[in-house]
Amino acid sequence: MTVSISCDSCGMPLAGAEDHALADTSIPYCIHCAPEGHLQNAAETLERFTQWTMRQEGLDYGVARERARAYLKLMPAWKDANL
Length: 83
Ligand SMILES: [Zn+2]
Description:
The chain is mainly alpha-helical. It has helices at 42-57, 61-72. The protein starts with 41 loop residues before the first helix and ends in an 11-residue tail after the last helix.
């Protein structure tokens, strides 16, 4: 079995089964990106990352959204997505 070392959607390290969605190591996403075992849609993920970036870096919404979009574009799950 192949075990991902980081989430294909957000890059969060997946150190153990409990970090994977549904604690299933065959799922290459973390519990935050795929709380029900399948990836949330692009709009939901971008919004979640925007909120997270605002909190982490104290940025305004528009700036945080651009930062979040640029970051997600680097991820395997979103590189071809229309974010
Ligand atoms: Zn994730």
